[in-house]
Every structure is written in C-alpha cells, then in structure tokens.
Amino acid sequence: MSFADPYQGKKWSILDASAFTENKTLEADIIIIGSGSGGGVCAEELSAKGYRVILVEEGPLKTSSDFKMLESEAYPELYQESAARLTKDKGIKILQGRNVGGGTTINWTTSFRTPPETLSHWRDKYQLENFTEEKLRRYFEKAERRVNIEKWQVEANQNNLKLKMGMEKLGLTAGVISRNVKDCYNLGYCGMGCPTNAKQSMLVTTIPAALENGATLIHHLNAFRLNFSGQKIAGLECRARDRRGNGYTGITLKLQAKHYILSGGAIGTPALLLRSNAPDPYDLLGKRTFLHPVSLSGALFKDPIEAYAGAPQVIYSDHFIYHPSQNMQESPGFKLEVPPIHPVILAGTAPFHGLKNRELMLNLNHFQTIISLIRDGFDERSVGGQVYLKGDGFAALDYPISDYLWRGIEKSYLAMAEIQFAAGAEKVFPLHNDAEFYQSWAQAKTAIPSLSKKILKAKLVSAHVMGGCPMHNSPSKGVLDQNSRHHHIENLSIIDGSCFPTSVGANPMQSILALAYRQVEILASAL
Amino acid sequence: MPSRRQFIKLGLISGTVLGTSRVLYGPFVASPIKNPYSYDFIFLKELDLKTLSQFAPVFLKGSLKDSSQVGAALKKVDHAILGLSQSSQDELCQLFDLLNLPIARRLLLGIWRDWEELSERELDTVLHSWRESSLALKRSAYLGLTELFCGSWYADPSTWSELGYEGPPEL
Fold first, then answer.
1. Which residues of B touch A351 (CB under 8 A)?
2. pLDDT at B5 (0 to 100)
3. Which residues face A111 on adjacent strands?
C-alpha cells in the first residue's frame, strides 16, 4: 500500500540550509525557532493572519516516505544526539526530537490535558491566575480538534493490557489514553516516524497549513545567537548544519523580524538565550528544568507480549499521584504508562552484557515493561536541573537527583513490580544494575529497598523536558509573563515546554499545544 | 562510596595522562585507517580497533558466532558513534585513549597487562567490576560500551530472526 506524502509535489517555500553555498540575510514579520508543538501551532496561526513567517528547524525534513520503521535510521535522523543525549553526570538519558515536527514526529501520541492539580499549583505558587480549566478549555478543545485527539477505541496490546490487568487485580484504577491519530493502522512504530501519516503531528497538520499560507520553512539551520539593540532583538545569527546534522557547513544566515518566537524546547530555548547573553537580572534562565525522570521495570510473561506491535501507549494510571492514600510529603508521585520495546532500545538499555543480554533478547517477545514518570517540581525538595553551555556553546542539562526523588524512584520500583506480579509475570526485573530477575512479589518487595540510590546504577530516562523559562507575572520570579512575553525583551515570546514553572505531571504535548493556541492568540492581537 | 574529591582527582589525573599521551601519539587523523577487517572505519582508530576487538566477544558473548564477526560488530559500533554529538564523540575518544594507553590503563584502571593478554573470562570480570564500581566514571564506561556494542548489534535485521522478531510490518 502506498500513502500520499503531504510534501510531495508541493510548491511550498522550503529551504535546506545544508545545501546553501553562500551566506544570506532573510527578513520576515515573525521568526519562529523550532518546529515542534509550540512552533507548529504558532506558524499556522500567524501565517493564517497574513504575517510573513519564517520557521527555523535545526533538524532535517523527513516525511512519511522516509519513515521505514527502523531504529537504525530513526534515532540518528530524528532525535537529538541519536537518542543518546545524557544529563551532565550521565544519570538520565533524554529522548528529544530533532526534525521538522520536533517531538510530535516521534512521540507515542499520548495526549492529556494539563491536569487540574497542576493548573491549581501554578495559580497558587506562580500567580498564573488565568490558567484555570475554564479559561483554557477552548484551547484544549482547539488542540483536540486540530490534531484529532480522541480516546483510543481499539483493544490495547498485551504490553498495555498487563498494566491494566495488574492494576485491576490490586483493586486500583487505570485509564485509557487519548491519542492524536486519524485512521491509525495500530502498527506500533510511532517512535520512528509514522509511515501512514495517521499520527497527526505538526509535520502533517500545522506545518503544511502554514506553508500553504505562504510561510517559509528552513531546516538544517541552527539558531546560534540573538543580537540585541536596547531592549529589542535586532537579529538572529544562524549556522547551517551539514547534511548529517552533527557538524556545520560554515555558512551563516542572518534573520531579521519584528517579533521572535522561541519554540526550541526546554534545552534548546534556554541555551539560545544563554549563548546570546540575554538579560537575566534575577538569574532564572535555564534553572528549574524538569524531566519527569522515568524508572523502568521489566517483566517476563509466559504468554506473548510483543511490545513492539500495536499502539505503544494506551493504558495509564495516576493512582500513585492523586489517590488520597499516597503520601506526597515523603516522595513525589508518579504516572504509570508502558513503553514500546524494539530490539535496539532493549539491548542498549539492559544493564548487562554478554550472555545475560542475549538471554533477555531471546525473550524479546515475552518482555513487558512498565515505566514511572516522576512528577518533579511540585515540592521544594525537587528543584529540577540547570541548562548550561559546554565549551563549544552546545546545550546540556545538569540534573542532580535529590534524596526526595530517589524515594519516589524506589516507591515506583515497588509499585511496578507488584503490578507486574499481580498481572501474572513469572519474573520481574527493575532496570537497575543491582537488581535481579525476582521470582515473586515477596522477593522483590524485600530486595528493592536495598537497590542503591545512585545514578548509572538505576537506568533513568526522560522524554519530557520542561521549564527553564518559567512564566510568572513578577519579573523577579519568572522569565516570562503569563502570556509568554519575555519580561526584559520587547519583541520576544517563548512558546514551548520551557514556559512551564514545574513539570506538567502528564505527557506534555497537549499542554504545549493549548498553551501555544492561547499565547499566539494574545500575541496576534498585540502585534 | 567514593568521595567527590577522589572523583575529581581521577578526572584530573585522566586529563593530564591523556593530554600527555595525545602529545606523544600525535593528533588524531580523520581518514579511514588500515585495519585487518573488510570495512572502512571512520571514527575508530587502529589502537581503538585493537582494544575493542578484545572486548567485542565479551560484550556479545553468544551473539557472535565466531571471531570472523568481530569486524562486523566493530563496524556497527563505529557507525553508531558517528550519530553522536561532537562532545559525546570527544568523551568516547578520551575513554578509548584511556583503554588503549598502557600508562593510563595502569594508573586509572589498575590493569597492568595488555588487553590481548587477558582471557575472555578475565575481561568479563573487568567489565563486572566497572559495572559494580563505586566510581560513576567506570559505571558510565560500562553502560556506554554495553549500549554501543549490544544496541548496535541488534540494529541489523539479520539478528532479528533468532529473537522471533519479524521486523516492521509490510505496508
């Protein structure tokens, strides 16, 4: 079967900076840096209002006809640092998109409105009084319509069903996830780019619409430095990436506009401002960066799991965040979901080598995994990380793990193991160097508390980077006001995951989409 | 538990030792190098290949059918490294220097013999000691190399059938 590639045969203004042979200066009304959920929405909305928009993306333009459902191609082409980006002490691996469409091209389509508990925390602690469910409803709905977010109707794969089954056996509740797909073939390779265009990512929704409206997309272009004149940005210096995307060709571009929107994500956006020596009088920039650090628990089942096939994430549970029985004074809450499991990711994530690694791989079809997304940033003992620049100006994140977070991680290993045994697992293995394949819940329960609370012993990952340019109406407490306008730079908005003052406590795509619809509407009326 | 001071000390020593050895061994060249395998290597240098060829059968025990597959395993590692950021590549370069150079290996890892002189069993013990080490540096070397060797091995569709994995569905 062949699927129409929305980019083929179009006369859109798309420039590949890696092919440029001379330096250029380009000008527009609005320059948007980053083409994920924030940048995609802004590009469509502003181009529809007649503004001349340039959308800048550091990664490549890869479309459905390029997506072959192969890890060997997807990780190096579509992810930051080949899906091997690490925090400073290498304790947490960060999965982030780097392509036209950003995270939305490669995420697992899991869509949640911002949890009401998160919004009320933002109102109480960060003076974001407009962030109520009622005031945001129409933006959440707009996002739902635009990218077709609907509760998934097809039966979950076994990987997901085991989470549901385990929760039910324990008398706990699990829910069904909403996904941004249309006519989905239920393949399970969302993380490698959707070959059927069922996933309603920015790549197939807002960006084609913006291009149709006359916007210009420049890919393979790294936004290097903003230049200031007084309180305003005078221009943006960019460097062309080479074809492979890891080096530079030496070609530079100067972009100039009336207004600039940063949507490069919660590492890229603060890093650009740091490289630019942007005003930061209260030393807030890049701090309080959150990750939803993820712990993992594997389990072997007798019956086939085939965690690579079928919609990757369908079942979730918030029991360990919001249920009254959970003691949030002691440790952070965590959201339970499952990840898809493909060969490269399993062999590379397993914390052992040789015969043990091979034995696990031979059990690929029977390996089930639950993940816990730790809800960071809601307690003074969880202050997040700090984006900083390496010597060559390359962005990185320092994210130390506090004792408070470690307690949440321990609790998550216990919860996941109990659920997996309740679902009928023969063996459960927390992904931790000290752990073994436990044979029973009783054994796991005794052993898990003695797993050392150390980085590079516990396998920790993150697919959600948030914060670092938080909104707060007081300039001494936030980089942005609650409309995403920078407190100290007149012609700058930041519209991406970096705006959030804490983590979201749920997969952030829909929160970013809704935020973007709100902020860009306010921006357009002010311009 | 290692003190922070110890860790910093290790960092300083490794910086100095590796800095010196880079001077001794000259700059690193960027063109494919001569090697005993039927592949071109872009990142890995002669000494890296010599060292890693000892490790490949240990990381991939059971998966490598025989020594003729060592070159293929190293080629996959080489290819995987090329996708990493410049700073990760620089760090790997340092790690390989540390493994390659006798003086660094003795001072920092306490290993006095050449890798060739260690049996697979002894190398396996070394890997386990890194895995269990109180030094984050050694644990990160262990996990990084495991990911490079084991992850890249299974990127190849020819490895899938014995896993019972049919690969992506036909559209």
1. 131, 143, 146
2. 42
3. A178
Q: Give me the long-range contacts of A7-13 (CB less than 8 A, separation at least 24).
A: A7/A61, A7/A63, A7/A208, A8/A63, A8/A65, A10/A208, A10/A211, A12/A208, A12/A211, A12/A212, A12/A217, A13/A211, A13/A214, A13/A215, A13/A216, A13/A217
Q: Which chain A residue is nearest to residue B146, measuring alpha carbons?
A: A353
Neighbours of B26 (CB within 10 A): 7
- Test A68 with B169 for CB contact under 8 angstroms: no
Contact A91, A399 (CB under 8 A): yes
- Percent pLDDT > 70 in chain A is 100
> What are the start-end ranges of the E strands in A197-285?
216-219, 221-229, 232-241, 248-256, 259-262
Residue stretches of chain B with pLDDT short of 70: 1-32
Q: How far is CA A334 from the centre of its chain?
A: 16
Nearest-Cα distance to chain B for A223, in Å, is 17
**Which residues on chain A are in Cβ contact (under 8 Å) with B63?**
357-358, 361
pLDDT in tens, A395-409: 999 999 999 999 999
Phi, psi angles (nearest 5°) of residue A340: -70, 150
Find chain B residues with C-beta within 8 A of A194's C-beta. none
Listed in sequence order, the residues at least 6 apart from A107 whose beta carbon sits closer than 8 Å to its beta carbon are A97, A190, A191, A201, A463, A507, A509
Q: Where are the beta strands (DSSP E) in A257-337?
A: 259-262, 289-290, 294-300, 315-316, 334-337
For testing contact with chain A, the best of B150, B158, B163, B166 (most A CBs within 10 A): B150
Cβ contact B168–A454 (<8 Å):
no
- Of residues B79, B73, B118, B171, the one with CA closest to residue A187: B171
How close does chain A come to B26, measured CA to CA in Å? 23
- DSSP-derived 3-state class of residue A118: helix
Predicted confidence (pLDDT) per residue in A220-251, tens digit? 999 999 999 999 999 999 999 999 888 999 99
Question: How open is the CA angle A445-A448-A452, to the nearest 5 degrees?
Answer: 165
> 339-378 in A: which are within 8 Å (CB) of B?
343-355, 357-359, 361-362, 364-365
Phi-psi region of A230 (alpha: psi -120 to 50; beta: other; left: phi over 0): left
The residue assigned the tokens 């960006």 is A207
CA-wise closest residue to A146 among A222, A11, A46, A40: A40
Tokens of B78: 């080489």
pLDDT the model gives residue B149: 98
- Whole-number Å distance between alpha carbons of A64 and A8: 10
A288/B contact by beta carbon, under 8 A? no
Confidence of residue A391 (pLDDT cuts 50, 70, 90): confident
Which chain A residue lies closest to B160 (C-alpha atoms)? A343
Number of residues assigned to chain A:
527
Give me the pLDDT at residue A380, please.
Answer: 96
**CB spacing of B124 vs A354 below 8 angstroms:** yes
C-alpha distances in angstroms, A75 versus A81, A87, A339, A365? 8, 18, 16, 22
Residues in chain B: 171
Rounded CA-CA distance A198/A69 in Å is 14
